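Standup notes
- DV: blocked on the single-chain target, sequence here:
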Amino acid sequence: MNTSRRTFFKLTSAVALGTCGTAWAVPTNQPQKWDEEYDIVIIGAGGAGLAAGVESVQQGMKAIIIEKMPLIGGSSLLCGGKFSVAGTPEQKAKNIADDEQRYFDDMMKTGGYQNDPELVKVFIKESRKHYDFVTKELGILPHEITAAAGMSVPRAHGFKPGEVLSAMRDYFVKRGGKLVTGMKAERLTWDYKNSTISGVKCCGKDKKTIYIKANKGVLLASGGFNRNPELLKKYAPPMAKAAVIAGVGTTGDGLLMAQAYGADVLDMAYVKATYGFKLNPNTIGDMAQVYYGGAIMVNKEGKRFVNESLSYKLLGDLALSQPEGKSFMIFDEPMRKAQMGRRAIDKKLFAPIDEGKKLDFLFTGQTLEEAAKNAGLPVKAVEETVASYNKGVEAGNDTEFGRNSLTSGHGKPTKIETGPFYIMPTTAALIGTYCGLRIDTKAHVIDVFGEKINHLYAAGEIVGGVHGAAYMTGTAWGKAMALGRLAARTIAGK
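- DV (later): unblocked, structure below
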């Protein structure tokens, strides 16, 4: 028997109405009368939602963005501002040779070839389109271009997230788009007659139910599920040890709304935390990457456990698996100074040392012995670990873990030998979940049977398929904005 989606939903709805306490997820009936009506309804005002809003007004659509939080930005506002793009004028000005093919190869390799290659290709192309919009139409230029784990060349273009997000918001509103904060999307509504998503059931600031009709489509841009303990327990149990600094609103609402209609998911097994945060972090500014400047990582026993040049997501996995989930970065004065010149966040973290200030998240010592004692680590083990590492650096062969660069083939490791010495207790934190709904190359949400869910689209952190098994710096914020633009253009029929 060939059962259509329409028939299936009718049947499940009838079952639900005739039983008590059913576990079936059933569609929400659309109202007899709508409160508001638009071409496109965008759920979430982070990078994906705002970029979609920009494209929507450019395509002449009547558009609304609804955001449950009182402020816009979501996790995009908290990110490090890195936007990875290939072949930009800014790269060329620095004699950085990069192109889409190299970017694609790096993405697939970093993702363990678990990412969707066709979606990755689309993401890379759309990233460049949005980058050109930001730099040319909004007039915002990157302040730096850096390399990070997974990159064969520097392509992480640094921006101030708040500046870009505010500019996109202003662009959207000034051209007729409507942005409403403090309004929560609760359910997607279903048009039985036409077998399609028809709109959104919302809860406004006054707790009043509001039904908003979407004539052309609903875009889920609501972020991940970093702050939903139940979903983390379901999909990523190891992350229970990780800190969380993602947007407060990342509770998986959009994911659950889509799953009520049979939406498929991707990459749920690859949720990873980012390594390098001081203990009890609050923002991305609490993260140091001195391991990419030559620092080594040790556990509470004072022993190395990893090749420190790997992706910080993989470093996070291994750090959380250490005894009691404890790990430490060990580095010396030349490394501190060099890293401050490489990365603005590290400079802000460690510059107070030059003013004679003592940092409460860092243990120091004029000798390695003194630093280890202050950190409460076994002195002999730490000294032996550093001596062994230095011997490998001198010989050009790290026989223990195979580290031959600072990160991704860039830079040569140096010995830890010049005081003062520093030991930083470090943890991994969830910035984003980087997995979620399966979409096609036009941003349609796909169900568990491989079929489109009519009039339902997704972009940003809520989407799986782009990153695969690991994450490359600058591809999360980039993915949000790039796929947001793509989704809106698809909804517009372009």
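- Follow-up: The longest strand covers residues 209-220.
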